[in-house]
Amino acid sequence: MSSPKVAVQTDPRARLISDIGDREVVIWGARMTGIGFARFAKAQGIRTRAFIDSDPALRGKTVSGIRIYPPDYLAELVATGTRFVVVLAVSIKEDEIISSLTGYGLSADDLIVYSKYCKVFYTIDVVGSCNLKCPSCVHGTPDNSMPTGLMSLDTFKKVIDKIKTDAPLVTHVGLYNWGEPFLHPELHHIVDHLHRNDIAVAISSNLSFRFADRLDRVIKANPEYLKVSVSGYFSKAYNNTHTGGDVNLVKSNMYRLRYLIDRYSADTLVDVNYHLYKDNNGINLTKMRELCTELGFVLSTVNALVMPLEKVLKHCEGRPDPDTVRLSENLLVSIDEGISAASMFKSSRCSFMDNQVNINFDLTVPICCTVAERQGNIVEENFLASTPRSIEEKKAQASICMKCMAYGLPEYNMGYNRAAWDEIASSKGSCDSGSTGGSQTT
Ligand code: SF4
After folding, report:
1. For the chain, which terminal residue's Cβ has fewer other Cβ atoms within 10 angstroms, N or C?
2. What is the pTM (predicted TM-score) of this model?
3. Parallel, antiparallel, or unpaired for β 66-69 and 62-63?
4. 211-230 burial string, b = 16+ CB within 10 Å, else e?
């Protein structure tokens, strides 16, 4: 007797929908990947019960109309006998999260790892320049080889067409890598275009700009996620690491953002990403937290690390550049301490290599988001003429990756083992004077 034929789903969208079945979904990860999946789920009629996120900064917040709970909420759900499935929707640190899921009483069938369906996460650096010159950024690196310019709206549309051909399931796109997206005069059209293609939008900005009309148009377009990068509340600390910016302009734009979000009833999650240094982890942090509470924004902290990758590699090879030496004096967690803390999760794989494709404004494709130098690090000269396989193969041959992985830098860049980083940081104290002085030290 021949066995019945079972239809095998090869389309990842259909497979994902089928694997979820009629169960309610709890999304682990309330930032961009999770938000993108939530948009997809809603369009498919899948009911999302809640977001889960281990970041305390997100607790009690609502994103895309869905409440965010801490991980313990899972145990509560299991205890009530609720039928649900957890969709783990993150682009990095997946293995660290999976290892933390044991103990919640979930079976293997209760967990769907989103990256097994959505294989590639795309970022498009629509602007190849920045108005600031921060010491931990390629645009703040003297004599960097980075060309400058903008991706035109027409080219952007071609890139999205190509992405949709290459990847059957794409639910969000990040519009930044090193560049400042608000320097693009048509950013609102770019956001609209992604939404027309059912793709959620992530933007990251320093918010230190005078484009009031542009901010208005972009918020009216309702991007799902807006990260604001800051490193202080008062000018002195802020200027040390956001070189060329004006924190009072940032704060005034934060108020404007609140006004615009209310005016347009936008769903945009504003995530104020506060880079922690020795000179800003006291009164500066307290004041910025108060401001974020007042405005209803998320304040998430990150122990500052050194970027781009080449600077860290030089440090590891015993030949740090002067900027890195100067910056290191202000770090709460030194490069070596960060590498050591993250090494607990050291792996033979790198998720930047495995599941991310970065497209520069000029259509070149770098190995990953962390590298600055072009020489040897561009795997495709023209994304539109590439194939997913050619990108994958050329990435696999990149010589810089061998060194990077040998030193444990993927895990360092992703900030694995946050608890250990925080413990190290707390042993360093603070030199946050709260001074409002505006002189720049870099
Ligand atoms: S191994 Fe390093 S250089 Fe290579 S993709 Fe990963 S982070 Fe980038």
Report:
1. N
2. 0.93
3. antiparallel
4. eeebbbbbbebbbbbbbbbb
Q: Residues spanned by CATH 3.40.50.720 within the chain?
A: 12-116
CATH class entry, domain 12-116:
alpha beta
In three-state secondary structure terms, 270 is: strand
Give the pLDDT mean for 298-304.
96
What CATH number labels 121-426? 3.20.20.70
What residue ranges of the chain are covered by domains with CATH 3.20.20.70? 121-426
Positive or negative, the Cα torsion across 422, 426, 430, 434? positive
Q: Hunting for tokens 């925080």 — which residue is that?
A: 422
Residue bearing the CA closest to ligand 1, atom 8: 368
Minimum-distance ligand 1 atom for the alpha carbon of 309: 3
Residue 18 Cα to ligand 1 middle (Å): 34
- Report the percentage of the chain scoring pLDDT > 90: 78
Whether cis (ω within 30° of 0) applies to the bond prior to 135 is no
Whether the Cβ atoms of residue 287 and residue 245 lie closer than 8 Å to each other: no
Asked if 106 and 99 touch (Cβ cutoff 8 Å), the reply is no
- Give the distance (Å) from ligand 1 centre to CA of residue 234: 35
DSSP state of 66: E
